[in-house]
Every structure is written in structure tokens, then in C-alpha cells.
Design goal:
Layout: H1 2-32, H2 44-50, H3 55-69, H4 72-77, H5 79-89, E1 103-110, H6 118-127, E2 132-136, H7 143-150, E3 156-160, E4 163-167, E5 171-176, E6 191-198, E7 201-209, E8 214-216, E9 219-221, H8 223-238, E10 244-249, H9 260-263, E11 287-292, E12 294-301, E13 312-318
Parallel strand pairs: 1-2, 7-10
Antiparallel strand pairs: 1-13, 2-4, 3-4, 5-6, 6-7, 8-9, 10-11, 12-13
Helix pairs in contact: 1-3, 1-5, 6-7
Length: 319
């Protein structure tokens, strides 16, 4: 009788180990083949991609279970999602590279239209010492405070609608960028394009704030954001200047296929995780810095301001 009970326990442990192993293989599949997850219903694919790095936590849970089950099969299977996660995101944890000769430092921040202390926010961003500062959710009552506070260190600036760009270097050709989706009928102006005359040459700089998304019982509501991203992607594709920098609250991560019109044309950060939203408990980086004919070498978050987003600072090396 004792022998039969012992055999049953071993068999049960082996079965539970196989369940963990199957879950590990499925996790690896989601990491590697996330583009194959359909978006037709509830935009499930985009929802998965918005939080794709967090699948690493699932792998940690499976690892703990494999240790509890003492399952060699499960532990070996876990090598698959570990390798997949490391391939996709491991490089973001590499040390910040040394500064180069043709480099710009930029700051991107959604300052919030409910920010109670715009002047303090402006000072904090300027203290990071960037060449460019891009801001979103500028409201008429707060705009003069940003202008006055940044004027001494950033003598050149352009504002269109609720987005603005401040620069140490001269700006020319500032204009409104129309990225308003057809489905939005109310007044809406969230894009600008200007040329920054840097010591290393002219750089077309775009500042954009894409529409918000919502997650509900029916899935991810991102149709307006996706359409705005397509309009922005067309504008970047038509840009005549070779070097382009895009700064903005894009309401999406770079893994989300909703930003493919941009990520297929531009480089994203090589190093740095920089989770920026929500500021109280950051879960995703939806504040982005991208570039064409330039490399986003590193991205990091700055300390919290009066916004529900954290500012991000990035180092860009021009080609």
C-alpha cells in the first residue's frame, strides 16, 4: 500500500511539473509571436503588447512553482521564456553609454492640464540640462508660467494648440501638424513640427500627443490613437529633412502594433526602461522619444512633477 501511495505522489508531481512546463512554453510563444495574437476583437494583441515586459513576472512565478514541484522538465522549459524575454528586453538594462560628439539631450513630458505648479515643473525640467524640451497638455492659464520660467535658458520656443517645444538652439518653420482623427469633432490641436538649427545640422522635430486609450470589458479602445499614429507616420515619411526627432505622449508602448506607422520608420531607445505612467506607480512607458537618421542611445525617467506622468530624458546621437 505504501509503495502505491508513493508512486501516486511521484506521478502527481510529474503531472504538475508538466503543467508548469506547458505554461512556460506558452509564455515563450506569447513573447516571440505576440504579433500573431489577433487584434480583431477587443484589440487583444495591442493590449498584450502594451504590457509585454510584464510577462517576465509570469516567468518568475512559474520558476517558483517549478522549484516547489522539483520538476527538472519545468525548469528546462523555463529556459525558453527566459531567453525570449532577455532577447527582447535585456538590452534595455545595459549601462548608459558614454557621451558622443554629435549628441543632443532631450526631455519629453506630459505636464498635465491639472498641474498645480507649472513653474516648479518647468524649473525641474530645465535643471536636467537638455537641449530640447517637449511639453503636452499646455493650457492657456499655465502657458505664460512655462514661457517665463524657461525663457532664460531656452530662448527659442514654439507652441501650437496644447503642445510646445523649447530649445537652446534657433527654431524655424514652426507649424501646426494635423494629426486629428476624423472621428474627433471637438476642437483638437496636438501636433507641431519645427526645424531645430543644432550645431550639428538642421533637425526636423515633431511634438505630438496622440489620443488616449481606454481599457474596458470590451477590450482596448484605441481606434482614435491608431488613426492619429497613421497620420503622424505619414507626416514623418513625407519629411524632406533627413534627420527627424519625435517627442510625445503617444499613449502607447513601442511594442504595441498601434505605433507601427512610427516604429517601422524610426529608431527607438536602445537602452533604458523609463516607465513613465502613471507617475504614482509606473507600469508602461507611453512617453516616447524616437529618431530617424539618429540613434536614441539611452532613455531614463526624471523625478516626479505635478503631473500624472513622469518626465523622460533621452540622449540622441545624430548620424
Amino acid at each position: 500500500m505504501g509503495e502505491r501511495v508513493g508512486s501516486g505522489a511521484v506521478a502527481g508531481a510529474a503531472t504538475r511539473g508538466r503543467v508548469v512546463a506547458v505554461a512556460a512554453v506558452l509564455s515563450a510563444g506569447l513573447l516571440v509571436f505576440h504579433r500573431a495574437v489577433p487584434n480583431a476583437v477587443g484589440r487583444v494583441g495591442s493590449l498584450l503588447e502594451s504590457f509585454l515586459p510584464w510577462l517576465g513576472l509570469v516567468v518568475l512565478v512559474l520558476f517558483a512553482l517549478a522549484l516547489l514541484r522539483r520538476s527538472a522538465v519545468a525548469l528546462v522549459a523555463l529556459l525558453l521564456p527566459v531567453a525570449a524575454w532577455t532577447y527582447l528586453f535585456g538590452g534595455l538594462f545595459l549601462p548608459e553609454p558614454p557621451a558622443g560628439p554629435r549628441e543632443l539631450v532631450v526631455v519629453q513630458h506630459n505636464v498635465s492640464d491639472e498641474n498645480a505648479d507649472p513653474a516648479a515643473t518647468a524649473r525641474a525640467l530645465a535643471d536636467a540640462g537638455p537641449d530640447l524640451i517637449a511639453l503636452e497638455e499646455l493650457v492657456p492659464t499655465a502657458l505664460p508660467l512655462y514661457e517665463r520660467t524657461l525663457a532664460r535658458r531656452y530662448p527659442y520656443h514654439a507652441v501650437r494648440g496644447t503642445v510646445g517645444l523649447w530649445s537652446r538652439h534657433p527654431l524655424t518653420g514652426a507649424r501646426l501638424l494635423d494629426i486629428k482623427p476624423p472621428g474627433i469633432t471637438e476642437p483638437w490641436s496636438r501636433g507641431l513640427r519645427a526645424v531645430v538649427r543644432t550645431p550639428h545640422g538642421d533637425v526636423a522635430t515633431y511634438v505630438a500627443h496622440l489620443p488616449s486609450i481606454r481599457v474596458g470589458a470590451s477590450g482596448l479602445a484605441s481606434a482614435h490613437r491608431d488613426e492619429s499614429a497613421r497620420l503622424l507616420g505619414r507626416a514623418v515619411a513625407a519629411e524632406e529633412l533627413e534627420t527627424v526627432i519625435l517627442l510625445g505622449d503617444l499613449n502607447s508602448t513601442v511594442d504595441d502594433r498601434g505605433l507601427t506607422p512610427l516604429t517601422s520608420r524610426m529608431n527607438v531607445a536602445e537602452r533604458g526602461f523609463a516607465l513613465s505612467f502613471p507617475a504614482a506607480l509606473p507600469l508602461a512607458r507611453i512617453d516616447q522619444v524616437m529618431a530617424r537618421s539618429a540613434t536614441v542611445r539611452h532613455i531614463r525617467t526624471l523625478p516626479a512633477t505635478g503631473s500624472d506622468h513622469l518626465p523622460v530624458a533621452a540622449r540622441i546621437t545624430l548620424d
